[in-house]
Amino acid sequence: MNNEASTTRGRLVIVSNRLPVVFERGEEGLRTRPGSGGLVTALAPVLRDRGGIWIGWSGLPADEQEEVEHLLDGSSASAGYALRSVPLTAEELELYYYGFANEILWPLFHDLQSHCNFDPAYWASYREVNRKFAQHIAEAVAEEDFIWVHDYHLMLTGAELRERGLGNPLGFFLHIPFPPPDIFIKLPWRFNVLNALLDFDLLGFQTMRDKRNFVQCVRMLLPEIPVRAEGGFHVMQHHGRELRAGVFPISIDVREFRRLAASDEVSESAWYIHEALPDRQIVLGVDRLDYTKGIPYRLEAFRMLLRRHPDMRGRITLVQVVVPSRTDIPEYFDLKTKIERLVGEINGEFTTSGWVPIHYLFRHLTRGELLGYYRTAEIALVTPIKDGMNLVAKEYITCNLEGNGVLILSEFAGAAAQLHRDALLVNPYDIEGTAEALHVAFMMDHDERRRRMRRMRANVRRYDIYRWVESFLDAAASRHLHDFPMVSEYIPPYDTTELGVSI
Predict the structure, then answer these.
(1) Is the pLDDT of residue 469 over 50?
(2) Of 151, 201, 253, 387, which residue is the catalytic one?
(3) Is 387 a catalytic residue?
């Protein structure tokens, strides 16, 4: 980090919807284990070194809070930083989390406003839970602590903290896309949310497009707010404070993924996959069950590939992994049913002796299994209809140790801004275009594959999860915006004329 960042006073306070530990109840009672994921991995050393607190919901009912706090005392000692739980009732979880966060903000911010349920009760609970988080933060922090709030669940927390008189520096990072004004204005509480975001000192977005959408919303809905561009940021004045909005694309722990991908366990897993699917190229899709992932369009594109290019039959197999998610909700259950119907139709149409075109896995994979597929697949099909970043693309690139893979990537994934020059970009709604991209990827010679993969691997390696954390904290501490290195340093310019399959 730069000198300013390294001398910042105070501890680091991370606030997220969930704590970085998982509670499990077994025969011996409740116990905890460390959570997984790059965010936890990257932030833990900073929290230990600087001193800090992680605040979030435990994942358990509020009536178990006493037992949770007892366990967190022990987890805090082993983690090297404090863990503080915000208790949520079943009703709050239903209205704030499943309601406002996932039935309003999630679809709206992914340009799917037809999926929204604008229930006023959801908004009331969202405000109350953000207020509850703010109260727990206020009780835990000291005057000089830097508070870094994460994601769409907690967009009102900064405003709630300011109402309590806290003058601490506040940062916020949005992990999902930010919608353009014509979609954002459909939110009945648009002014409340926008004004609340302006109470942070630093706002971080995944892509330049997300930051631009936010700035356009401010200019349209709050024209009295002065906005200026400075050193890669947009700077705004609100309530006598200065807010800066910047771009900080999130990434993965590249070194850890490379180490695991090279392990004997993963190498053996990859070998077994190749043995089971010999003499063909494997196309891999890995997605959580969600309507933003575009899985039905992907399956239709694979069907079109097999219809238009009969010579591909028997030479290519799609392995589609779908991780279960919220199947108790009718919309998600219907999506699962649709996916399984399409898989059945396509396999029924094209299966021959010794070859099944689609291998469909509806379950959680172990880390070894997942990385084995990353190592094995010649083509990755990452085609969400909208995504903040999509780390599957970066994981695949990092784990493709032989360097012979091809990434087919949706132009609507945040990762496209970083990888557009060497991935094959597609519009996921364009079934014919995606089918043609699959054919191009299948036919691509090894030298071209290696050139593209080498450049993508270097790109992801240069800006890993640790660089992401460092850049955000540096920006929070820096007063000299013109000297601050922004995304243009490591991401090539993204010109919309480059959209589409580039050969």
Answers:
(1) yes
(2) 387
(3) yes
